[in-house]
Design brief:
By secondary structure, the protein is an alpha/beta fold. It folds into 2 domains: 2-107 and 297-318, ornithine cyclodeaminase, domain 1 (2-Layer Sandwich), CATH 3.30.1780; 123-294, Rossmann fold. It has 11 helices and 16 strands. Helix 2 crosses helix 3 and helix 2 (15-30) crosses helix 11. The radius of gyration is 19 Å and the shape is globular. Bound molecules: nicotinamide-adenine-dinucleotide. The site of nicotinamide-adenine-dinucleotide has 24 residues, from helix 3.
């Protein structure tokens, strides 16, 4: 079996390769040749940690495995990342362990790739202004991946603590894009594409703040109780997601399901648009919204791509196991 350590990942996989891996697995999910197994997530009663695993099988790519990990709030004080994850891949023909891959950077890359795939398939072609809500660890990855999908000219951004937007400003300017720190109202009035990537539990962005024709990728809500946009926006948008079961329970659509603004049938898997079985955006005035909840198959897809690259470049550590 192979080991690909966390430190080797950055030099191996690009946002473009992550995009291809995630686009392919979303298509496979919608074609029912890939499926996610039920998610396990537990407060383990030690170190305040939340631990769990996400797993699945892609019959088309023969990716079988799981991402194990979670959140250890005391890690920062020890000089470690609070979020820790590792991906395990298994040979689908024999069940033997194929690879162990560092999952921290991959998580950010696969999450950003999901938003980027949604923008590639659903945003208006003439989108010029990109809005980012949030400035935490994931935000810069989102900005880089999404900015590559359209000919954006400007980034407008909002964060609860605006002084934390400097990192995003540097990334935007590095990409040759103008950057402005704005209010949420200004952001909604200007942006053609909006990414929300916060841990908020109350709506930040509301329907009346968003222009017709906007595409929104809601990427922060991945747990029961989190919420980034109001249910009126969900109710007025054409809805897409990575996986419907997650969208209505732990994703951004959970609240609109509860207040009956939407039904399960109102949500389409993005893979159906990739496969061509759903038209996606059908008018320039339509608001499209992607609820990116984060599925285990995304992790397996990017980890598998990394193993192939690591073997090709002679970087993978081979162990008799
Ligand atoms: P982080 O802790 O580094 O940053 C959190 C961000 O949320 C900051 O911008 C902070 O200002 C903002 N925020 C927190 N509470 C808020 C509130 N009440 N109102 C407004 N803003 C608030 O986190 P991160 O690693 O950047 O992750 C952001 C979110 O994305 C988290 O909720 C995380 O669980 C989620 N996430 C989702 C996926 C997925 O696949 N969908 C993957 C990774 C992370």
């Amino acid at each position: 079996m192979y080991i690909v350590p966390e430190a080797a990942i950055a030099d191996l996989i690009t946002p473009e390769a992550s995009f291809d891996a995630v686009e392919k697995v979303f298509a496979s999910m919608a074609a029912k040749s890939a499926y996610n197994f039920p998610v396990i997530r537990e407060a383990i009663g030690h170190a305040d940690a939340l631990y769990g695993f996400k797993s699945g099988f892609d019959r088309a790519a023969l990716d079988l495995g799981l991402k194990s990990g979670g959140y250890w709030p005391g890690n920062a004080a020890k000089g470690l990342t609070n979020h820790q994850s590792t991906v395990f891949l298994f040979d689908a023909d024999t069940g033997k362990c194929r690879a162990v891959v560092g999952g921290n950077l991959l998580t950010a890359l696969r999450t950003a790739a999901a938003a980027a795939v949604s923008v590639a398939h659903l945003a208006r072609r003439d989108a010029k202004v990109l809005g980012i809500i949030g400035a935490g660890h994931q935000a810069a990855f989102q900005l880089r991946a999404v900015a590559a999908q359209r000919n954006f000219e400007k980034v407008v951004a909002w964060n609860r603590s605006p002084e934390k937007l400097d990192g995003l400003r540097k990334v935007a300017e590095g990409l040759g894009l103008a950057f402005e720190s704005v209010t949420v109202e200004q952001l909604g009035a200007q942006a053609d594409v909006i990414v929300t990537i916060t841990s908020s539990i109350d709506p930040i962005l509301t329907h009346d703040q968003v222009k017709p024709g906007t595409h929104i990728a809601c990427m922060g809500t991945d747990t029961k109780g989190k919420m980034e946009v109001d249910t009126a926006l969900i109710g007025h948008a054409t809805l897409f997601t990575d996986e419907i079961a997650q969208s209505i329970t732990i994703g951004e659509c959970q609240h609109a399901m509860l207040d009956l603004s939407i039904r399960r049938e109102d949500i389409t898997e993005l893979g159906a648009v990739i496969n061509g079985s759903h038209a996606g955006r059908t008018s320039d005035d339509e608001i499209t919204l992607f609820d990116g909840t984060g599925v285990g198959l995304q992790d397996l897809a990017v980890a598998s791509a990394v193993v192939d690259l690591a073997v090709e470049k002679g970087i993978a550590i081979e162990v008799d196991f």
